[in-house]
Amino acid sequence: MGLADKRAALSVRPGLIWADVVVQRQNPRFLNGQLIIWLVGFRDNVYIVSRASGNCGKQSTNIKKGEYMNKKLLAATLGLAFAAPAFADSSSVVLYGRLHQALELNSVDTGVAGGDRTSDMNLAGYSSRIGVNVKEDLGGGLSFIGGYEWGTNVEAAGNTIAGRNAFVGMAGSFGRVTAGIQDGGNGTVAPLYVQASKYHLNGQNNAGSLTNIGSADFTPATPGATDAVINRKQRADNSLGYAGSFGGLNVTARHSMAGANQAAGSATGTENDVTLSEAAVDYKIGNLEIGGGVATYRYEAPEPAGSIDNVYQLGAKYTFGALSLAGLYGSSSFNGAGQADRDDFGVSAEYKLTANAGITASYGDAELSGSRDANQAQVIGYYDFSKRTRAYAGLNRTTFDNVANAAETDVQSVVMGLRHNF
């Protein structure tokens, strides 16, 4: 529309004195990037009408009828009033979550002489969660990233929300640098845990009775009867993380101050008295993916007997069309005289029956010389109704041997579950 057409369009208003376009420029705040300001004279007032992407606003001035106006000066003033902010708003906030529920039938035989196998059925919540992911483009390829994630329970009323991860960080061509509570989800890192999960396949995302990679450090003194056989540290407070991809090479690292948390400004706390440093590297070439990782614990005070010292792991995965085969090996050492190393390994497979259905099977074994051995076998079948909704059913058997008293705990589970990501 030309200037004459704009004036003609406005002339239908009674009392119109004059109309003109005084400011027309590009402005990234609006959807089409254009801002047009009209000056429209009505009787004793001058109205300022701005139009941008179909939105209009107006305000009146105290300029009297017939008074001479320097419209160029006014245009410059209006240009400042409607100017784009010094920092364009280019941030995004994404709400996401998971609903995950399963029906379990578990039976346990503790191996105690004269004892009976016990069994029970229950409806279990499997790591349901809700989270917020934040990203802001800072320009020059640099972005601010951050987020919160909370665990929720969908099996019973009255349960409170529990924290899972929370972080801030920066991302760019160099990768991602993050700080906070990190567990491998929502842009955070957990190098050995995530890598172990990649090379020990599970069709159900590691939750409840079908977990085959445990999320806590294994200690020889305190394993539970239903612990996963293979364990790697997942969630770490007060941690710094890094993740980067360079061609087919992926690198993650995390350093956690694992002592008791201390308040801001404190100079006498114990937060840095225990530290965990870990890194994992994976390389993909064609259908083959291989990786390795290491974790090291350091203690300011003398190491507690039985506390974990170092963890090493290696893994590989190869895909033959619809079939994937994977293997994982790990070794952990512990502090204190006479403490034995713990070696674990896992083999697993996944077969895609169709584009949205498949089967996973895995076997894991762990040996701690002289005190405790364990093994775990499971098979899971799954069906994806969509990219977000999966139904599955699985069988799991885990046994824990105690060499000292020749007892064996045998845990068997039948599980049916439904999971939805949003």
Keywords:
422 residues, four-stranded antiparallel sheet, 7% helix, 16-stranded antiparallel beta barrel, Porin, 3 helices, disordered N terminus, single chain, mainly beta, 2 domains, 58% strand
Describe the structure.
It is a single chain. By secondary structure, the protein is mainly beta. The chain has helices at 3-10, 71-81, 191-199, and strands at residues 16-26, 34-42, 45-52, 55-60, 91-109, 118-125, 128-139, 142-152, 162-172, 175-182, 213-214, 230-231, 236-246, 249-257, 274-285, 288-299, 308-320, 323-334, 342-354, 357-368, 372-384, 389-402, 407-421. The chain has three helices and 23 strands. The strands form three sheets. The chain has a 16-stranded antiparallel beta barrel. A four-stranded antiparallel sheet has the order 1-2-3-4, sandwiched between helices. A two-stranded parallel ribbon has the order 11-12.
